[in-house]
Amino acid sequence: MVLNDHVDLPTFMQGVSKRNPGQTEFIQAVQEVAVDIFDFMEDKERYHKEQILRRIAEPDRVISFRVCWEDDNGNVRVQRGWRVQNNNAIGPYKGGIRFHPSVTESVLKFLAFEQTFKNALTGLPMGGAKGGSNFNPKGKSDHEVMRFCQSFMTELYRHVGADVDVPAGDIGVGAREIGYMFGQYKRITNQFTGVLTGKGLEYGGSLIRTEATGYGAVYFLANMLKTKNDDLVGKVAVISGSGNVATHAAEKVAMLGGKVVTMSDSAGFIHDPDGMTQEKIDWIKQLKNVRRGRISEYVNEFKGATYHEGMRPWGVPCDVALPCATQNELLGDDARELIKNGCIAVSEGANMPTNLEGVHVFKDAKILFAPGKAANAGGVAVSGLEMSQNSGRISWKADQLQQLLVDIMDGIHGSCVEYGQTKGGYCDYVRGANIAGFKKVADAMLAFGVV
Ligand code: NDP
Ligand code: 2IT
């Protein structure tokens, strides 16, 4: 066998599948990147010889631990927690924590792998990581969530730190959970440091962080439309999810003159043909963050809207679509339906919401398609700015941060165009994001030698 020589893409992917049995999400994420990177590396011997992609696709470490907690009835409950530290070539490990029953090692490995490229695209010094647990916060009391978060951090604290690994929120982890985890970290270590981002404003959080992911995904969408001399004014937008990313994406679409007609959760979607005003979006934020209710309740509040149990919103005719819920929520047939109905642009607020077939459908139709690692990078970018503010013990003003977010999203768009522009004039944003993200991490790794 010839080692350190050019293996071809199928052989590379066979190896990935063999080393990660049953980890379908992780294999899917590597496949989506490897296609572009193999093409890019064709005439770049060093990346091959130094096995750079092989190394990025092997997490630096996967930490798994038991999380025990007591529910309100005194029952002992046992969950599994993980932190996947994928790569710290360009900065401390950085990435969110997800609490959801669907969390597995495969899901967290895919997210940590994607995060490595995403964080590189922001231009800030952050490596890639992701963590979480199969804990389901739905239906749990605040006290139960607190006890779980404290137990989770009691194990995690030894693996993280402001210059080591800085977690943040993701699905099921918002301001409440970050508060409980930060409190426990501080209590155990007796240190007040920027070990988490997405913190409350009272204790070191950054303005604009809550809004950043959704707003950023819409700025990216607007940037794509601008390349066609178009904008969001009067555009009908279909959005999935109704959490942090979805509600802020909806807010920004409305601010820029578009009309958002759907939102969803894991049980179904609502269709509001009149469009969502700021008042309606605020009501949803309150529903999700304070009352912790379901999106179906929207139709009791706002007449003219309908609820579609067990369905996703992709069949609703639209000009632009923003999948903002979870991975693999937009499949090949959904993509075909969107195109048939006239959709011209898709910006992924979620991570890998479109499956491989769906991505191909969008690319074949040559519509504007922004992958999550580029479009949703605004969240982690403002997390990076929160880290800077914490290190300097300062806090920047909202308009400064807002401008930085706009500039960073412009920069990511520019990088995607630089590496994604094809000869026929079509911009393949997936290819552009993969190559631009890879190049930065790969070149840092080359500098370090074989480590
Ligand atoms: P939230 O927990 O705030 O909201 C998640 C939303 O997605 C909820 O509406 C939830 O519905 C829905 N959802 C979750 N799981 C599923 C599922 N299996 N099927 C259908 N719907 C589901 O999370 P965020 O808004 O923070 O995250 C959404 C996406 O954005 C994720 O992919 C995340 O990785 C990504 N992301 C988040 C960032 C952030 O800063 N928060 C940054 C970059 C990306 P329900 O209430 O029924 O569970
Ligand atoms: O997927 C993501 O980029 C996030 N969940 C945000 C990560 C972060 O560190 O802010």
From the structure above, extract its key features.
451 residues, alpha/beta, Rossmann fold, 5-stranded mixed sheet, binds NADPH dihydro-nicotinamide-adenine-dinucleotide phosphate, binds (2Z)-2-iminopentanedioic acid
What does this structure look like?
This protein is of the alpha/beta class and about 450 residues long. The chain folds into three domains: about 50 residues, no CATH class; about 130 residues, Rossmann fold (3-Layer(aba) Sandwich), CATH 3.40.50.10860; about 170 residues, NAD(P)-binding Rossmann-like Domain (Rossmann fold, 3-Layer(aba) Sandwich), CATH 3.40.50.720. It contains 17 helices and 13 strands. The protein has a five-stranded mixed β-sheet with strand order 1-2-4-3-5. Helix 9 links the parallel strand 6 and strand 7. Helix 2 packs parallel to helix 5, helix 8 packs across helix 9 and helix 16 packs across helix 17. The radius of gyration is 21 Å and the shape is globular. The model has no long low-confidence stretch (mean pLDDT about 95). NADPH dihydro-nicotinamide-adenine-dinucleotide phosphate binds next to helix 9.
**Record field, number of beta strands:** 13
Please state roughly what percent of the residues sit in beta strands, choosing from under 5%, 5-15%, 15-25%, 25-35%, 35-45% or over 45%. Answer: 15-25%
Q: Which structural class should the secondary elements be placed in? A: alpha/beta
Distance, first to last CA: 23 Å
Globular, elongated, flat, extended or rod-shaped: what is the shape?
globular
Order of helices and strands: HHHHEEEHEHEHHEHEEEHHEEHEHEHHHH
